[in-house]
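Researcher: Next entry in the queue.
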Amino acid sequence: MLHLSAHEALSGVSGSISLASWMFVLVPQLVENYQSGSAEGVSLAFLTVWFVGDLANFFGAIWAGLVPTVTALAIYFVIADAVLIIQCLYYNHVNARKQFADPPQGEAAGENQPLLGRRPSDIGLPGSRRGSSVSRKRRSSTGEAPTLATIPEEENYARLWVKDTFAVLAVCAIGVAGWAIAWRAHFWKSTPEDGDTGNTNRALGAEVLGYLSAVLYLGARIPQIVKNFRERSCEGLSLLFFIFSLLGNLTYGGSILFHSVSRQYLLINMPWLIGSLGTMGEDILIFVQFHVYKRKDFAASDLAIE
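Model: Structure for this entry, 306 residues:
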């Protein structure tokens, strides 16, 4: 059995966990959109810029002649991004047609409808329009408006964190197990610290695409952050989506830094370091928005179902 140093093992384990994280990163948001029947919480600009970044990453991987697993993962990213974008466009189109065919009660009511007859769910809250649609969905599915006693929001939020923590631990376990199997089967091999520069022109072109993807990844989250701030809400977003993203970026950067901190090696991998570690600050900012707007989302939901 091959002997591995501690930093090589940590690099391999971190890279494997990162791979597992990226394999599942979009699944929580796909499930969130499917369960709610809406994609209003997701910024299409965010997904579009991220998609272009993954395209740049894909072509860079091909140009650089990276190992087949890296290229295959880049292809998977592009396909998964496209699926999520198509899902969001579909739900936006369907819900727009429903709103056109079934206008709000306040608009459909006649002139003799008393003004006091309006419900708070018809009026909604500024920046919290999705709260009323969620309330109507709950009414239609149960036949009656749920009460606060039947919707313990704080308890649900605590359960959400427990489920997300379990999901993160499961992904980490999958990553560790995957690396251990690959190492014992001799599929995983340590790479030289300085990397193989190969053809200078090929390396330069791949580096340009790497920096382009890094810039796109850094800019992709800005539309989502702005959307959350304007609406004062993170409703419709999957927290686990961004947790997986943070975990994937953290472990990917760790896999590079654990392998080597030599100047030449860091320069070669600088675009990917910027793209992974640089976006972590933006993910943390989105976590702060989840925490700040959580109670406002609950308040809007509570008002809508009174």
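Model: Residues 107-151, 195-200, 302-306 have pLDDT under 50 and may be disordered.
Researcher: Noted, moving on.
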